[in-house]
Design goal:
- This protein is mainly beta.
- Helices cover 0% and strands 55% of the residues.
- It has one domain: monomeric porin ompg (Porin), CATH 2.40.160.40.
- The chain has a twelve-stranded antiparallel beta barrel with strand order 1-2-3-4-5-6-7-8-9-11-12-13.
- The radius of gyration is 17 Å and the shape is globular.
- 40% of the residues are buried.
């Protein structure tokens, strides 16, 4: 069982690049502990270091396209692997829709080698609900993932919820992020076999068009992977934008 999406530990906050504006993000996730066992041909998650490059482009004020190019460094085998690719299409409410609420939907198609996902082909539907003011941000992503090939396709969609609460304090925002893997919606896993993580995170706010999110996460169940360290570095290639900013500026 994989830990939700171990390459993209991110809560979507309902923002998108302005039309015609490209962006780039680098995700780095270190799975230093936990999950030493895996069902072949998947590799154990223990000791994997993940790098994901995410280019994106705003198509319209409400529509953004993106891709993920993934690589993993595995300490068990001493190798650096290509770890698959994903395409996404994100739709959000326009910036002037409401001063506090943002809604959205992210659709994703993925292909991963068997080493990282036995089913190889997969999809994701990620609803986005966000509320913010000058100090606070609250976001929930009730993610549904679906394998598109065997052996996982017959299990039906799985529930992988994510959420974020953040408070702006001067040049940074401090917050908590939650990520869970509940299992198939039709037959949820027993609690001890589910994965639940809490991340303490900091977001840097003051550099226009620049994003930096750092976090340390702890697994809360026996099936979770212990301590996880993550970082997201991003840049939007246009500093002048009409999009209203959340209190944490351009958070993931």
């Amino acid at each position: 069982m994989r830990a939700g999406d171990p390459f993209e530990i991110q809560v979507y906050d309902g923002t998108a690049n302005p039309a015609g504006v490209p962006g780039i993000e680098l995700h780095v996730n270190d799975w230093a502990t936990g999950q030493r066992d895996a069902t072949a041909p998947e590799a154990p998650l223990h000791g994997q270091l993940h790098f994901t490059l995410e280019p994106s482009l705003g198509v319209a004020p409400y529509w953004e396209l993106g891709a993920y190019l993934q690589m993993a460094v595995r300490t068990d085998a001493g190798v650096a692997d290509w770890a698959g690719a994903k395409l996404r299409s994100k739709f959000v409410t326009p910036p002037d829709w409401d001063p506090h609420w943002r809604l959205g939907l992210n659709l994703e198609l993925s292909y991963l080698p068997e080493t990282y996902d036995r089913s190889r082909w997969g999809s994701e539907v990620r609803p986005i609900v966000a509320w913010h003011n000058d100090q606070w941000l609250f976001v929930i992503n009730p993610i549904m993932g679906q394998s598109l090939s065997t052996p996982g396709a017959s299990d039906g969609p799985s529930l992988e919820p994510a959420a974020k609460l953040a408070r702006a304090l001067g040049p940074v925002a401090l917050g908590l992020e939650y990520y869970g893997t509940i299992g198939p919606i039709a037959a949820p896993l027993p609690l001890r076999d589910q994965e639940h993580y809490i991340f303490e995170v900091v977001d840097f706010l003051r550099i226009e068009a620049f994003e930096l999110n750092l976090g340390v996460g702890e697994g809360l169940t026996p099936a979770s992977a212990g301590i996880v360290v993550k970082a997201i570095v991003g840049y939007e290639f246009e500093t002048a934008t009409t999009r209203p900013r959340a209190p944490q500026a351009r958070m993931p």
